[in-house]
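Work Package 3 (structural annotation) set out to generate three-dimensional models for the target panel prioritized at the project kickoff. During this period the team completed the workflow that converts sequence records into discrete structure tokens, so that structures can be stored uniformly alongside our sequence database. As a representative example, we reproduce one entry of 344 residues exactly as it appears in the project archive.
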Amino acid sequence: MAIKVGIPRALLYYRFYPLWKTFFTELGAEVVTSQPTTQEIFRKGLKKFIGDTCLPMKLVFGHVITLADKVDYLFIPRLVSIEKDTYLCPHFAGLPDVLRAIMPGLPPILDTHFNMKKKGITMKSIYEAGKRFAKDPHKIYRAYQRAQEEYKKFLERIRDGVTPQEAIQAFNGEEVPPLKGRRERLNIALVGNPYTIYDPFSSLNIIQRLRNLGARIYTSEMIPDETIEEMVCALSKRIYWTFGKETVGAAFHFLDSEEIDGLIYIISFECGPDSLLKEIVDDKARGGKKVAYMSLVIDEHTGETGMDTRLDAFVEMIRRQRTKKVRIGEGVKQGSVPKRRLGW
């Protein structure tokens, strides 16, 4: 019987799941993921967690609880840095220790250490994690290479215009509706931390809500890394948070785009870096007139009715602006909808 490794459907699941699952599967393990976040999962985690932190971090405790009696190991990586010269939120680095302290009866935790600031530590951690499933270091390395290949395919799907959620569905062999068959009339960019945007519970399923309003969604993952770096280089100081840099760079790019109709910036309440970086994006948005802009602060108390009201008003405002442009004649025939294509 294969060893079962549990991966919570939270935090960086939405960025690295294909990489992690392929690695463990190639070593003969069976990967088990928790169910999509529900109110019950959130409440289970909230009973165990004590302290003030953002909603995405609270959710992971509920996911861990639902997996605990179904797996032999829990994969909770110790994430310090995933790219050169940047860091992740300190909560990521301490999460394995916090879980052990709060829930001592959990299965063994695979706390693979990722820190691109220290040369060689990531590969050493990968070998340490792989030793539990295979003694041959060559097999572990081949599993890592195969995981990298699948991860590149995952990123390519996103570059083609699907969201990370849909790219994960495609990775799992599930059917994803083709982009050509969709009838979106507006181009809406959505930026923020991936663990906030792509969890349907924490974001109140904002992607589907916008699509129901006739919007095509663009995210920061669809923008090349070089473009992100170019955008943030204009700032007086470097942003040392990985997802903060990505969010600000993507927001700057979208706000300067002729093809984007609106930008929505989602942040989590009680996230310190988000609250600071939001001011940078707000300032950029105030200085431009090309793209409609709205920010949303989300926590567990955010209601669906309030979300619908704000999204309806935002989309209606964009449509009225476009109708006004058609009427005054800016090279567009009355009643037509201009074709828009992002040239990245």
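Confidence is low (pLDDT under 50) at residues 332-344.
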